[in-house]
Amino acid sequence: MLRRLRHETQGSTAAEFALILPIFLLFLLGIMDAGRYAWAFNRAEKATQIGARWAVATQIIPGGTSSTGLLNYSFAVSGGVPQGTVVDQTKFPGVSCQQSGTDLTTVACTCKGTCGFTYQIDADAQTAWNNLVARMQDIYPDITGANISIDYDWSGLGFAGDPHGADVAPLVTVSLRNVTFQPMTLYIFQQPIPVPSASYTLTMEDGQGAASN
Asked: What domain of life (predicted)?
């Protein structure tokens, strides 16, 4: 009987299949992960582009609707810039906004130099930020506000005392960072891999309202 068992070959195919199956599955999942990762990267880029479009066509965030916020601040009346002239970069050095605090749900803005206008956040500014985050999540649901930042930088456009909107038309850059992707091949180890950061810049349009095409 031992001699017969030693020369038995009927189960060899099943044994060989069992040996090759894990490698085959790993290879298959790797191909699927490559496609999923490319899709995640594509969605991250598209969400950033949509976010920038939303940011330039809707409510300016720094200062919200305050009379001294960036949207309503008159550089001619309060900033010492002659009526009808371009606001100098020293008067508008730029503002950066991102979430802060322990709960990472409240947006905060910082001036990149010395700002005479108000850039603190009011309720309308927070709502504008929340709307921006929600719009980007329409494209990439896995991102959070903590992954997003928005910069308003001097462009040389606009003029002091503009009666129809903000005195400046800044370059608005929406950035997406610290986004991760969880591949199936590493799921058992709970080891995510980073998605490349993305940023997109457009020039401010009306800076008012709550919707964008």
From this structure: Bacteria
